[in-house]
Amino acid sequence: DTAVSQTPKYLVTQMGNDKSIKCEQNLGHDTMYWYKQDSKKFLKIMFSYNNKELIINETVPNRFSPKSPDKAHLNLHINSLELGDSAVYFCASSPQARVYGYTFGSGTRLTVV
Amino acid sequence: DQQVKQNSPSLSVQEGRISILNCDYTNSMFDYFLWYKKYPAEGPTFLISISSIKDKNEDGRFTVFLNKSAKHLSLHIVPSQPGDSAVYFCAATGSARQLTFGSGTQLTVLP
């Protein structure tokens, strides 16, 4: 029973393609996030959804669009993929990040060739 | 603009000895700090946290120390075990429900 599950785990695709990464959590958490771990290993927040509403939208290209059909799901769609999009993308959820911290998924390694 | 910094990308320690991982932050609005541990091909997992009203929090072999005046925190692992080998991320948060992470420190515990 994986608490936060992401699919796929690995994704190799060509420049210019459109792809989606799916995330689901079964913890009943209110808030879900997408983080990107870049080549320098920093984990940087991209988006956050609280009860299906976007509450954080950091400065990311508008080629990235999060979609939350319900509280348990937060998907990430990426249009016109570029080489620089290659990274590991982590989904996470929390009841309250401030106190409880996040529960992360295992990550999706995206490679754009 | 790195608000949370882990200046040591790697650390090697002998089994049974103490591991000390360091973290510095610049944002004085941060008031809660966390450490995460990450194994390869897995997501980070929560390890221990500390509120800014405290200067020490202990959980078994893990102790986090906070020096607010220096904007510095550290994670002590005693005694270190080979299974502790992982990447350790420091993170901080303020009133917004958002964690800001450092770049991580790879800890290797040698048997």
Let me know the average pLDDT of chain A. 90
Question: What general form of chain B does the structure show?
Answer: globular
Give the beta-strand count of chain B. Answer: 11
N- to C-terminal separation of chain A?
34 Å
Coarse structural class of chain B: mainly beta
Strand content of chain A: over 45%
Beta strands of chain A, count: 11
Tell me the greatest interface. Answer: A-B, 29 and 25 residues
Uncertain parts of chain B? none
* Major sheet summary line of chain B: 6 strands, mixed
Helix percent band of chain B: under 10%
Quick structural overview:
Chain A is mainly beta and 113 residues long. In chain A, 4% of the residues lie in helices and 56% in strands.
Description:
The complex is a heterodimer of chains A (about 110) and B (about 110). With about 110 residues, chain A is mainly beta. Chain A contains 1 helix and 11 strands; from the N terminus they run E-E-E-E-E-E-E-E-E-H-E-E. Chain A has one helix at about 95-100, and strands spanning about 5, 10-15, 20-25, 30-35, 45-50, 55, 65-70, 75-80, 85-95, 105, 110. Chain A is globular and about 40 Å long. The N and C termini of chain A lie far apart (about 35 Å). With about 110 residues, chain B is mostly beta strands. Chain B has no helices and 11 strands. Chain B has strands spanning about 5, 10-15, 20-25, 30-40, 45-50, 55-60, 60-65, 70-75, 85-95, 100, 105-110. In chain B, the strands form 2 sheets. In chain B, strands 2, 4, 5, 9, 10 and 11 form a 6-stranded mixed β-sheet that branches. In chain B, strands 1-3-8-7-6 form a 5-stranded antiparallel β-sheet, with no helix packed on it. The chains are: A mainly beta (about 110), B mainly beta (about 110). The interface between A and B is medium-sized, with 29 and 25 residues.
